[in-house]
Amino acid sequence: MLPPIQIFDRIITGYGIAVAVGLIVCLFYIMRQSKRIYGTDGDILLITAIAGGAAVFFSHLLFGIISLLTYGGFPTITSFDGFLRFLNDFFGGSVFFGGLIGGAVAVFITLKIMKFPWYPAVDLITTVVPLFHFFGRVGCFLGGCCYGIPSRFGFTFSHSIVESANGVNRFPVQLLEASFNLLLFFALYRLFRGEKLCGRLFFLYLACYSPARFLLEFLRGDSYRGLFALGDTGVMLSTSQIISVFTLAVGIIGLIVTKNTVIKNQRNRN
Protein backbone atom coordinates (compact mmCIF):
# COMPACT_ATOMS: atom_id res chain seq x y z
CA MET A 1 0.00 0.00 0.00
CA LEU A 2 2.96 2.29 0.54
CA PRO A 3 5.32 2.63 -2.43
CA PRO A 4 9.05 2.26 -1.70
CA ILE A 5 10.87 5.46 -0.78
CA GLN A 6 14.33 6.15 -2.17
CA ILE A 7 16.69 8.05 0.12
CA PHE A 8 20.00 8.63 -1.60
CA ASP A 9 20.89 5.19 -2.97
CA ARG A 10 18.77 3.15 -0.57
CA ILE A 11 15.23 1.90 -1.11
CA ILE A 12 13.12 1.94 2.04
CA THR A 13 9.87 -0.02 2.05
CA GLY A 14 6.77 0.51 4.13
CA TYR A 15 7.59 -2.74 5.92
CA GLY A 16 11.03 -1.43 6.84
CA ILE A 17 9.58 1.81 8.19
CA ALA A 18 7.01 -0.02 10.34
CA VAL A 19 9.61 -2.41 11.73
CA ALA A 20 11.99 0.45 12.53
CA VAL A 21 9.24 2.30 14.41
CA GLY A 22 8.35 -0.94 16.19
CA LEU A 23 11.94 -1.47 17.30
CA ILE A 24 12.12 2.05 18.75
CA VAL A 25 8.80 1.71 20.57
CA CYS A 26 9.63 -1.75 21.96
CA LEU A 27 13.10 -0.63 23.01
CA PHE A 28 11.66 2.35 24.88
CA TYR A 29 9.00 0.14 26.48
CA ILE A 30 11.36 -2.58 27.67
CA MET A 31 13.91 -0.08 29.00
CA ARG A 32 11.23 1.74 30.97
CA GLN A 33 9.75 -1.45 32.40
CA SER A 34 13.15 -2.90 33.20
CA LYS A 35 14.19 0.21 35.12
CA ARG A 36 10.88 0.14 37.01
CA ILE A 37 11.42 -3.48 38.05
CA TYR A 38 15.18 -3.89 38.36
CA GLY A 39 16.39 -0.31 38.61
CA THR A 40 18.54 -0.91 35.51
CA ASP A 41 18.01 -2.06 31.95
CA GLY A 42 21.39 -3.60 31.07
CA ASP A 43 20.67 -7.30 31.68
CA ILE A 44 17.19 -7.30 30.16
CA LEU A 45 18.42 -5.44 27.08
CA LEU A 46 21.18 -8.03 26.64
CA ILE A 47 18.73 -10.93 26.98
CA THR A 48 16.30 -9.25 24.59
CA ALA A 49 19.05 -8.54 22.04
CA ILE A 50 20.17 -12.20 22.09
CA ALA A 51 16.57 -13.36 21.74
CA GLY A 52 15.99 -10.90 18.90
CA GLY A 53 19.06 -12.08 17.02
CA ALA A 54 18.01 -15.72 17.41
CA ALA A 55 14.47 -14.83 16.32
CA VAL A 56 15.71 -13.19 13.11
CA PHE A 57 17.99 -16.13 12.27
CA PHE A 58 15.44 -18.88 12.89
CA SER A 59 12.59 -17.01 11.20
CA HIS A 60 14.66 -16.87 7.99
CA LEU A 61 15.87 -20.44 8.48
CA LEU A 62 12.32 -21.80 8.69
CA PHE A 63 11.31 -19.77 5.63
CA GLY A 64 14.25 -21.31 3.77
CA ILE A 65 13.27 -24.83 4.82
CA ILE A 66 9.69 -24.25 3.65
CA SER A 67 10.96 -22.80 0.35
CA LEU A 68 13.17 -25.83 -0.24
CA LEU A 69 10.31 -28.23 0.55
CA THR A 70 8.00 -26.35 -1.79
CA TYR A 71 10.63 -26.26 -4.54
CA GLY A 72 11.44 -29.93 -4.05
CA GLY A 73 15.10 -29.69 -3.15
CA PHE A 74 18.13 -27.52 -3.73
CA PRO A 75 18.37 -25.69 -7.06
CA THR A 76 21.46 -25.97 -9.23
CA ILE A 77 24.00 -23.31 -8.27
CA THR A 78 26.83 -22.65 -10.71
CA SER A 79 28.29 -19.34 -9.52
CA PHE A 80 28.73 -17.17 -6.47
CA ASP A 81 26.14 -14.75 -7.82
CA GLY A 82 23.81 -17.69 -8.19
CA PHE A 83 24.48 -18.62 -4.57
CA LEU A 84 23.59 -15.09 -3.46
CA ARG A 85 20.37 -15.22 -5.50
CA PHE A 86 19.60 -18.58 -3.90
CA LEU A 87 19.99 -17.10 -0.41
CA ASN A 88 17.78 -14.14 -1.30
CA ASP A 89 15.08 -16.20 -3.02
CA PHE A 90 14.95 -19.08 -0.55
CA PHE A 91 15.92 -17.42 2.74
CA GLY A 92 14.95 -13.80 2.11
CA GLY A 93 11.57 -14.11 3.79
CA SER A 94 10.72 -14.97 7.36
CA VAL A 95 8.23 -17.08 9.29
CA PHE A 96 7.00 -15.72 12.61
CA PHE A 97 6.82 -19.05 14.41
CA GLY A 98 10.43 -19.81 13.51
CA GLY A 99 11.45 -16.58 15.19
CA LEU A 100 9.21 -17.19 18.19
CA ILE A 101 10.57 -20.67 18.84
CA GLY A 102 14.18 -19.65 18.24
CA GLY A 103 13.82 -16.56 20.43
CA ALA A 104 12.18 -18.54 23.24
CA VAL A 105 14.96 -21.12 23.24
CA ALA A 106 17.57 -18.33 23.25
CA VAL A 107 15.90 -16.66 26.26
CA PHE A 108 15.81 -19.95 28.18
CA ILE A 109 19.48 -20.71 27.49
CA THR A 110 20.59 -17.13 28.24
CA LEU A 111 18.74 -17.06 31.56
CA LYS A 112 20.35 -20.35 32.53
CA ILE A 113 23.84 -19.16 31.64
CA MET A 114 23.38 -15.80 33.38
CA LYS A 115 21.63 -17.48 36.34
CA PHE A 116 18.93 -14.86 35.98
CA PRO A 117 15.51 -15.39 37.63
CA TRP A 118 12.80 -16.60 35.25
CA TYR A 119 10.28 -14.18 36.73
CA PRO A 120 9.69 -11.38 35.94
CA ALA A 121 12.15 -11.39 33.00
CA VAL A 122 10.22 -13.85 30.82
CA ASP A 123 6.89 -12.16 31.57
CA LEU A 124 8.31 -8.80 30.53
CA ILE A 125 9.84 -10.14 27.32
CA THR A 126 6.59 -11.98 26.54
CA THR A 127 4.63 -8.73 26.57
CA VAL A 128 7.00 -7.30 23.97
CA VAL A 129 6.28 -10.09 21.46
CA PRO A 130 2.72 -9.10 20.46
CA LEU A 131 3.66 -5.42 20.61
CA PHE A 132 6.43 -5.83 18.05
CA HIS A 133 4.30 -8.26 16.05
CA PHE A 134 1.67 -5.53 15.78
CA PHE A 135 4.14 -3.23 14.01
CA GLY A 136 5.38 -6.12 11.89
CA ARG A 137 1.89 -6.90 10.58
CA VAL A 138 1.22 -3.22 9.88
CA GLY A 139 4.46 -3.35 7.90
CA CYS A 140 3.19 -6.39 6.01
CA PHE A 141 0.11 -4.41 5.01
CA LEU A 142 2.18 -1.40 3.92
CA GLY A 143 4.53 -3.65 1.96
CA GLY A 144 1.78 -5.81 0.50
CA CYS A 145 3.18 -9.12 1.73
CA CYS A 146 1.33 -11.82 3.73
CA TYR A 147 -1.73 -10.64 1.81
CA GLY A 148 -5.28 -11.89 2.22
CA ILE A 149 -7.70 -13.80 0.04
CA PRO A 150 -9.58 -12.04 -2.77
CA SER A 151 -12.55 -10.27 -1.22
CA ARG A 152 -15.15 -7.63 -2.04
CA PHE A 153 -14.23 -6.03 1.27
CA GLY A 154 -10.60 -5.05 1.30
CA PHE A 155 -7.85 -3.17 -0.46
CA THR A 156 -6.25 -3.37 -3.87
CA PHE A 157 -2.48 -3.43 -3.75
CA SER A 158 -0.47 -1.64 -6.41
CA HIS A 159 3.02 -1.63 -4.91
CA SER A 160 3.21 -5.06 -3.30
CA ILE A 161 6.62 -6.68 -3.13
CA VAL A 162 4.82 -9.83 -4.35
CA GLU A 163 3.64 -9.21 -7.90
CA SER A 164 0.73 -11.66 -7.70
CA ALA A 165 -0.87 -9.57 -4.95
CA ASN A 166 -1.23 -6.45 -7.09
CA GLY A 167 -4.42 -5.48 -8.88
CA VAL A 168 -6.71 -7.74 -6.81
CA ASN A 169 -9.02 -6.59 -4.04
CA ARG A 170 -7.84 -8.50 -0.98
CA PHE A 171 -9.04 -8.95 2.59
CA PRO A 172 -6.80 -6.96 5.00
CA VAL A 173 -5.81 -9.97 7.08
CA GLN A 174 -2.58 -8.19 8.08
CA LEU A 175 -4.53 -5.42 9.81
CA LEU A 176 -6.85 -7.92 11.49
CA GLU A 177 -3.89 -9.81 12.95
CA ALA A 178 -2.20 -6.53 13.89
CA SER A 179 -5.32 -5.49 15.82
CA PHE A 180 -5.45 -8.84 17.61
CA ASN A 181 -1.79 -8.55 18.59
CA LEU A 182 -2.32 -5.05 19.95
CA LEU A 183 -5.26 -6.20 22.09
CA LEU A 184 -3.22 -9.19 23.27
CA PHE A 185 -0.37 -6.87 24.25
CA PHE A 186 -2.64 -4.69 26.39
CA ALA A 187 -4.16 -7.78 28.05
CA LEU A 188 -0.74 -9.26 28.86
CA TYR A 189 0.58 -5.88 29.99
CA ARG A 190 -2.32 -5.45 32.41
CA LEU A 191 -1.68 -8.91 33.88
CA PHE A 192 2.03 -8.15 34.08
CA ARG A 193 1.55 -4.84 35.88
CA GLY A 194 -1.02 -6.41 38.19
CA GLU A 195 1.37 -9.31 38.92
CA LYS A 196 -1.21 -11.87 37.82
CA LEU A 197 -0.23 -15.29 36.45
CA CYS A 198 3.37 -14.57 37.45
CA GLY A 199 5.84 -16.59 35.43
CA ARG A 200 3.07 -18.01 33.23
CA LEU A 201 2.40 -15.24 30.72
CA PHE A 202 4.40 -16.96 27.98
CA PHE A 203 2.16 -20.02 28.18
CA LEU A 204 -0.91 -17.77 28.20
CA TYR A 205 0.41 -15.97 25.13
CA LEU A 206 0.81 -19.28 23.28
CA ALA A 207 -2.67 -20.41 24.33
CA CYS A 208 -4.20 -17.17 23.01
CA TYR A 209 -2.19 -16.48 19.87
CA SER A 210 -2.00 -20.03 18.48
CA PRO A 211 -5.73 -20.60 17.82
CA ALA A 212 -6.10 -17.05 16.51
CA ARG A 213 -3.23 -17.61 14.05
CA PHE A 214 -4.70 -20.96 13.01
CA LEU A 215 -7.98 -19.27 12.04
CA LEU A 216 -6.38 -16.21 10.46
CA GLU A 217 -4.39 -18.43 8.11
CA PHE A 218 -7.63 -19.33 6.32
CA LEU A 219 -7.90 -15.66 5.33
CA ARG A 220 -4.40 -15.60 3.83
CA GLY A 221 -4.07 -15.63 0.06
CA ASP A 222 -0.32 -16.15 -0.30
CA SER A 223 0.99 -19.64 -0.98
CA TYR A 224 4.72 -19.06 -0.43
CA ARG A 225 4.23 -19.59 3.33
CA GLY A 226 3.96 -23.31 2.62
CA LEU A 227 0.77 -25.33 2.14
CA PHE A 228 0.61 -29.04 2.89
CA ALA A 229 -2.18 -31.55 2.27
CA LEU A 230 -3.75 -33.17 5.32
CA GLY A 231 -3.70 -36.76 4.13
CA ASP A 232 -6.40 -37.58 1.57
CA THR A 233 -8.94 -35.20 3.11
CA GLY A 234 -8.35 -32.49 0.56
CA VAL A 235 -7.70 -30.03 3.39
CA MET A 236 -4.63 -27.83 3.02
CA LEU A 237 -2.88 -26.50 6.10
CA SER A 238 -0.11 -23.94 6.16
CA THR A 239 3.15 -24.34 8.02
CA SER A 240 1.99 -21.86 10.67
CA GLN A 241 -1.27 -23.76 11.18
CA ILE A 242 0.61 -27.00 11.78
CA ILE A 243 2.99 -25.33 14.21
CA SER A 244 0.17 -23.48 15.98
CA VAL A 245 -1.40 -26.81 16.94
CA PHE A 246 1.77 -27.73 18.82
CA THR A 247 2.26 -24.28 20.36
CA LEU A 248 -1.36 -24.32 21.56
CA ALA A 249 -0.70 -27.66 23.25
CA VAL A 250 2.46 -26.27 24.87
CA GLY A 251 0.56 -23.23 26.09
CA ILE A 252 -2.31 -25.22 27.62
CA ILE A 253 -0.05 -27.86 29.17
CA GLY A 254 2.25 -25.13 30.52
CA LEU A 255 -0.66 -23.32 32.17
CA ILE A 256 -1.93 -26.55 33.72
CA VAL A 257 1.47 -27.75 34.95
CA THR A 258 2.35 -24.38 36.50
CA LYS A 259 -1.11 -23.81 38.00
CA ASN A 260 -0.10 -24.81 41.50
CA THR A 261 3.52 -23.71 41.24
CA VAL A 262 4.55 -21.01 43.67
CA ILE A 263 6.85 -18.56 41.89
CA LYS A 264 8.57 -16.07 44.13
CA ASN A 265 8.47 -12.47 43.01
CA GLN A 266 12.23 -12.04 42.53
CA ARG A 267 13.02 -8.58 41.22
CA ASN A 268 16.78 -8.74 41.68
CA ARG A 269 19.51 -11.24 40.99
CA ASN A 270 20.00 -14.02 43.52
Mean pLDDT: 85
Tally of DSSP helical segments = 8
Query: Biggest sheet, in brief?
Result: 2 strands, antiparallel
Structural class: mainly alpha
Residue fraction in strands: 5-15%
Principal-axes geometry comes out as globular
Low-confidence sequence ranges? 262-270
What is the string of SSEs from the N terminus onward? EEHHHHHEEHHEEH
Radius of gyration: 20 Å
Q: How helix-rich are the residues, as a percent range?
A: 55-70%
Number of domains: 1
The spatial strand order of the largest sheet comes to 1-2
The first-to-last residue Cα distance is: 50 Å
**Tally of strands:** 6
Question: Which key features would you list for this structure?
Answer:
270 residues; mainly alpha
